[in-house]
Design goal:
The protein has 737 residues and is α/β, with parallel strands linked by helices. The protein has 27 helices and 24 strands. Helix 23 crosses helix 24. Keywords: Glyoxylate bypass, Magnesium, Metal-binding, NADP, Oxidoreductase, Tricarboxylic acid cycle.
């Protein structure tokens, strides 16, 4: 048998809008890559794929799937890794349950998600599903730190064609509200482990009666790791939320809650649940038992709750009564009555706050009108970024994308750094007592006295990733000469430990004068002042701010984070090229299904593809890949220069048209280049044919729009139907094959 070589590039199979886009774009990539002998393989990290891979024993041989995420997780530790990673769903419980239902209906005999596991078997199923829940993919693949910025061409284009910005007025009532203490920020303790302290630690809960329960055992902690612990008081949180509901009413604004229930999959759904309880407090007081009997878990949201009590008129009437007393809520979809509190994963802070700020501080109210909002962000660790942005724009008016400079990001992310790696070590306290970290040498590293319901968490940041991050920051500063700010707060326990790493490295390299260290609030203001003046800034941040800022600044500067270049230099030498900095845009799927228009912008994929090919050229000495990569960059430029990005409205060119244009510009650039004559000859006829048949192709693409599209599933669409919908031009298909 002929030996099959392993693919040089791996492209991920994901969910929702980006996956629909792949059905059109991947065949094009493969066609072009094959001309240079490059194979592009796929790995399935979709939610459905991960569910299927988790329960092989329930499935037929034909239904089974390999655990591609685990394989990729190993691969990114190899020097040769070259992965193009598209955004995937980080599922909340309602999404996970919906995906399981859909797969069951497709004939997959999967177990139900056990809401309240009792038997050992149920507990096992629940644990396996919980492994799939939330942000279960990105932390596994991110074996390197993050470098996110707008490519020069993209930034120039945004300045030339500035997007619409909402107006900010000085008397806007929009504000950010956070707890005044007893939150993660104020309760945080942190220490850097010495060699004597390294080893296998455990996390224990010690009850008032002195009994000890081990919550986590065999927790490996390395020397040099920064280890944090903190908790949010449930009582303080409830009081705060109740107060905020009243304050919103008094202000006459919309109540909104912004969390990251996907990435922070243990802590934030609990915080979300507290908000649902606070909102419906009188209903929980009066009908608590009935709600419990109906299987209501407030952490799953109002949507799930309403579904469970839909046949209970007394409870529905009580909910209606409360609604009348409450301030209006910020809506996810006012036409359909979907509120901020319906589903924990509908409002995700990194995307939701920037969208609100871009709109001039406005959110959608239940009446379908825009209104000012009280943005409730309970924890104080990062809320000041949004608070200060809002204050800045109230004082200075909206940012002008035509003249604004750019904030790039160098993010400390590798090896599950900081809070984003905390899910396995986050616990809701069962009772009053003490939570503590006990080291292998017997030392108690951290301990907190907690009350029942308090949300306690620990997390680590390893030494090698920290040093690598500081090095990346120095490289980026040297390459750009831009203002460079470490967004670290010396008064915060964790940040103070990081500063102990950062300062000596900068001093040893003699570059300390090129960097500032500022707390997030001050760094926000300094960066906004810099870009307002048309200059650039490098934000050197931890993992959470990496996430928040790479939506915030691009959304203000470019209108979207979809156009970001998002490179992860893997610590063992490989490259992970993430596409954009945003997510999987569920609303876009809805539009495609209703009217066969896909407004997803593949600019992130275009940029990642160019980088991946150039990386292949550099790392493997593959010159043809280099030629393909440079031509892909020219094609990307062509899309921008000729305004070929998808439009938002049905009847106008969409994602599929942009792929046609990308293919055409790519082929033209390859035909025109002189570095590789063979490739030039190969692509010349293709370029000519794509040009000659423009009218036919764009006509066929346009004709497909305007009616409902059937893709045979939401979480697991049928490959055939997806291909049929996403590749409606017979002429283009005949050329691409
Ligand atoms: N790297 C990853 O794997 C990431 C995954 N996610 C996941 O994505 C899902 C949705 O997250 P959410 O917070 O709603 O954020 P999204 O970024 O998916 O969506 C917010 C809005 O941003 C716009 N948008 C985002 N990407 C594009 C694009 N390529 N082209 C055009 N517009 C775009 C859309 O605006 P409009 O509707 O106005 O067109 C969209 O509705 C969640 O499951 C989340 O966990 C989120 C972030 C990163
Ligand atoms: O993994 C996730 O849940 C989201 C990741 C994200 O938002 C980001 O990396 O920007
Ligand atoms: Mg993000």
């Amino acid at each position: 048998m002929a030996e099959t070589k392993s693919p040089e590039i791996l492209y991920t199979i994901v969910d929702e809008a980006p996956e629909l886009a792949s059905a059109s774009f991947l065949p094009i990539i493969r066609k072009f890559a094959s001309a240079a002998g490059i194979t592009v393989g796929t790995k399935d990290i979709s939610l459905a794929g991960r569910i299927i891979a988790t329960f092989p024993e329930n499935l037929t041989e034909a239904q089974r799937q390999s655990d591609d995420l685990a394989e990729l997780g190993e691969l990114v530790k190899q020097p040769g890794a070259n992965v193009i990673k598209l955004p995937n769903i980080s599922a909340s419980v309602p999404q996970l349950v919906a995906a399981v239902k859909e797969l069951q209906a497709q004939g997959y005999a999967l177990p139900d998600y056990p809401e309240d596991p009792q038997t050992d078997a149920e507990k096992d199923v629940r644990a396996r599903y919980d492994g799939i829940k939330g942000s279960a993919v990105n932390p596994v693949l991110r074996e390197g730190n993050s470098d996110r910025r707008a490519a020069k061409a993209v930034k120039n284009d945004a300045q030339k064609n500035p997007h619409r910005m909402g107006k900010w007025s000085a008397d806007s009532k929009t504000k950010v509200s956070s707890m005044d203490g007893n939150d993660f920020r104020s309760n945080e303790v942190s220490a850097t482990l010495t060699a004597e302290q390294a080893g296998t630690a455990k996390i224990e809960f010690v009850g008032k009666d002195g009994s000890t329960k081990v919550l986590k055992d065999g927790w490996p902690l390395e020397a040099g790791a920064v280890v944090d612990a903190s908790f949010m008081s449930a009582r303080a949180l409830s009081d705060f939320l109740a107060k905020q509901i009243e304050e919103t009413k008094a202000d006459g604004t919309l109540f909104s809650l912004h969390l990251k229930a996907t990435m922070m999959k243990v802590s934030d759904p609990i915080i979300f649940g507290h908000a649902v309880r606070a909102w419906l407090a009188p209903v929980f007081e009066k009908h608590g038992d009935a709600l419990k009997a109906a299987g209501v878990n407030p952490n799953s949201g109002l949507g799930d709750l309403l579904e469970r009590v839909k046949d209970k008129p007394e409870i529905l009437a009580a909910i209606e009564e409360v609604r009348e007393q409450r301030p209006p809520m910020y809506m996810v979809n006012s036409d359909k009555g979907i509120t901020n509190l319906h589903v924990p994963s509908d409002v995700i802070i990194d995307a939701s706050m920037p969208a609100l700020i871009r709109a001039g501080g406005k959110g959608w109210g239940p009446d379908g009108n825009e209104g000012d909002s009280n943005c409730v962000i309970p924890d104080n660790s990062y809320a000041p970024v949004y608070d200060e942005s809002i204050k800045f724009f109230k004082e200075n008016g909206a940012l002008d994308p035509a003249t604004a400079g750019s904030v790039q990001n160098v993010g400390l992310m590798a090896q599950k750094a900081e809070e984003y790696g905390s899910h396995p070590t986050t616990f809701e306290a069962e009772a009053e007592g003490t939570m503590r970290i006990v080291l292998e040498n017997g030392d108690v590293l951290h301990s907190h006295d907690v009350e029942a319901g308090d949300i306690w968490r620990a997390c680590t940041t390893k030494k090698a990733p920290i040093e690598n991050w500081v090095q990346l920051a120095m490289d980026r500063q040297r390459l750009t000469g831009a203002q460079a700010i470490f967004w670290l707060d010396e008064t915060r326990a964790h940040d103070a430990e990081l500063i102990k790493y950062v300062t000596p490295i900068l001093e040893a390299k003699g570059v300390a004068d090129k960097f500032e260290i500022l707390a997030p609030r001050e760094a926000t203001r300094a960066s906004l002042e810099t870009i307002t003046a048309g200059k650039d800034s490098i934000a050197i941040t931890g993992n959470v701010l990496r996430d928040y800022l790479t939506d915030l600044f691009p959304i203000l500067e470019l209108g979207t984070s979809a156009k970001m270049l998002s490179i992860v230099k893997l610590m063992n030498g490989g490259g992970l090229f993430e596409t954009g900095a945003g997510g999987s845009a569920p609303k876009h799927v809805q539009q495609l299904v209703e009217e066969n228009h896909l407004r997803w912008d593949s600019m992130g994929e275009f940029c990642a593809l160019g980088e991946s090919l150039k990386f292949l050229a550099d790392s493997q000495g593959n010159d043809k890949a280099g030629v393909l990569g440079e031509a892909a960059e020219e094609a990307t430029q062509g899309i921008l220069d000729n305004d070929r990005s998808p439009s938002r409205k049905v009847g106008q060119p969409d994602n599929r048209d942009s792929h046609y244009w990308f293919a055409r510009y790519w082929a033209e650039a390859l035909a025109a280049q002189t570095k590789d004559a063979e490739l030039a000859v190969h692509f010349k006829p293709l370029a000519e044919e794509l040009g000659a048949k423009e009218a036919e192709i764009t006509g066929e693409l346009a004709a497909a729009q305007g009616q409902a599209a059937e893709i045979g599933g939401y979480y697991k669409p049928s490959d055939e139907q997806k291909a049929e919908v996403m590749r409606p031009s017979k002429t283009l298909n005949a050329i691409i094959g």
